[in-house]
Model the fold of this input.
Amino acid sequence: GDVLVSKVVVLVIDGARHAWVREDAGARALAFTRALGRSRRIDDDDGVGGTDDAKGCGKMFKFVADAPTTTQQRLKGILTGGLPTFIDVSASFGGAALDEDNVVAQLLARGKRMAFSGDDTWGELFDLNVTFAVDASPFESFDVKDTTTVDAGVRRRMRDMLRRPDDWDVLIGHMLGADHVGHTYGATTDEMEDKLRENDQDVRDIVETLRADARFAETLFFVFGDHGMTDHGDHGGGTADETESFLLVYHPWASKCTESGKMPDETMPQVDFAPTLASLVGVPIPYGNLGTVNEKIFNIAHGGKPRDDDAFTAYSHAVFSNAEQIWNYINTYGDAERSSPFRAEDETRLRDVMHRMTRESNPTRKLTHALEFMKMTADIARAQWAEFGLWRMTIGFVALVGAVSANAFAAYALTYDDGDNAHTSTTLMKTTKDEANNEDYTIVATVGVVLVALASVSRLSNSYVVEERSMSQFLFATYVVALGIRAATFTRARIAQVSVHTILALFANVAMFKLGTNWIKSDASVSRDAGLGFAFVGCAGCLAFAYMSHRFVARRFPRTTPAVILVILAWFAVAARCVEVLVLGGDGFVAARMCYGASASAAFAAFAHAPSKAPDVDTDTIVRRCALFVVVIVPTLTMLAGPALGVIYFGLMVITYGSTAALALGGDPSVATVRLRCRGLETTLATGAWLASTVVFFGGGHACSFDGLHFAAAFTGFKTFHFYVMGALLACETWSADILLAACAPMISAILYRGDKTQSTPSSVVVRVAQKITLVRTVPVLCSVLCAAAHRRHLMVWAIFAPKFVYDAIGSTVADVCAMTLVIFATRTPQASARAKVKAK
Done:
């Protein structure tokens, strides 16, 4: 096609919100950038003006992304003009190359010389040395606490390349400072204000360079964000703050400008960028593009032409080519798949509009038909465009149903040996000494099952998923009240204990809600005065946890003393990190690694050098092993949760789980007698444990969306990015509630066994309770899978249902692996005694 611009300069400000350039929001930090998009001219004297002889023309757009709003997914959409398909988590955090046709590949194929500097995510999409042969300078992108290195590197490389305009045709810079400041401090902080002023100066410097050199007379300058961010600095979801960024288009040498600076910012989908840029530089539009050439940008670019060409004719030709490209693509797509992704009525409508365009002779009406066709195609595609393997989805869902059914059968229908007679879990309900009490537990267990079922089927509603934090608090509070009433009815003499545990559980429920909604995701955002208070609470909490480790583990199980001493050292390291980060302003790397080392040494000392000498696995052995696991992992999990709120979070977690278990056992674990041990009680424990775990999950400031991930936790103790290490740390921090539950469940199960002569070993109770907890946890996951499949064409599938499915699937996997490991570890029999048992038989 016709070439309207000979050079293109692109500056990506990662995470730039549209609110930052809105005049009604102030736009103080990006004042110059805002002025470029508002003023018809840029005056030579002060940079912002409107004199008749001034040159240049710019326009600001609201640049709207499609969820998910992760950097790699957004770059793919911007460069290909395509819409997102299913969320590929690995592709969002270090994934595959961009194999689809894209505008960068078209530029390279047409011999355009390109240079790049900035976010190394581009290196995952392209072979940088081949694609950007003029200059390729990627910088590490995952260190969210580094807010200066990438920007400084991009600034240096772009300044150098702008001095040599004859060496390149396309210059790209991708700054990460604003995104990292958002993750570290938040989007509305003074640190962000300073960073935006710095980026505003970067824009000014580039504009001044472009306007000072006549070799940039046919150059177009783009400044945009790949996505926005929430007030907390997160992104990944589909809220307006996350999807709305800005796009500034500026021609430094435009001799005429038809755009009015007083009009509000027009909305431009990100998918329109690829066809617009391709048309401007005269290369083919990417094959899979679904975007539309933007007329306003076309006019700005045309304003820089020295001769008086017909802008309307040039734009019309570009739009007709754009429409033909989309028509060819959707027809080829349908032929390749042997069926069109559109419904029959949609195909008919599109074909009619396309035929009207091809038959129309009037240029204006023909242009109208072409734009109507492309808009209709994009609207239908957003609702329908995704390729799903329904057969594979069906097989996977049926397999999951089979696994859940097998788990239910194992938990409730398999026989076990009591030494004299065989019983099933079902008949166990009728073998208790107090049938009336057993019926009471059946009732409260039924309440729990109903609440779990409600939480599961409610996943069909996007409103429930969005408000799941509040709903989980309500469901848990309802169950706590039911448990309290049941425990008070059964143990009238212990009404005071029951009341205390009920009040504690309800208090922890409310506190978790407040903590989660006001979570401090970045230590750097804590003021010095607040840091002193948080550091004091953190140190006091660490000392309290260290004392409890000694009091309840080392003194009760003397052989665990060496391991507990190392655990106490780990707690001191956590306390030292609290002071260093919150008071002294350090990074806490040394203290964090001391905690890792002490915890790892404690694990080795506890599990490798303290084997059980008992001929069989008794109750005390199970409790000791699980208690050791808990005291070993809690310092690390607390540290990962952050020095500001980590200790408070784990304190509330202990209260939540402890009070729930105590209420299920009648208000006091020490009164658990044989008449309480029945299927109803085990189901009560399982449902209560899952409901409590959901409250604890949201209490840690998490959410079932990609902006709910606490990326800063992955860098605790590390400066450079290591994929597997960071992934493991992030998983431990995100699903710490399930990890701790996996450790506590065998201990509670062992308490159920005490004094119960109907069980041959405590291992049978431990395994059965673990199976019931796994079953209760898997049923909601099954519903999430069903909901994601049923809503695969839903408007909010990428923003709500797919992330929820991903969270539930990964969380369930982490929890099941931990539960399986803990059950095997807690119930394993020493090899010597196992051989003795075989000989005896």
Observations:
- The longest strand covers residues 57-64.
- The chain is about 60% helix and 5% strand.
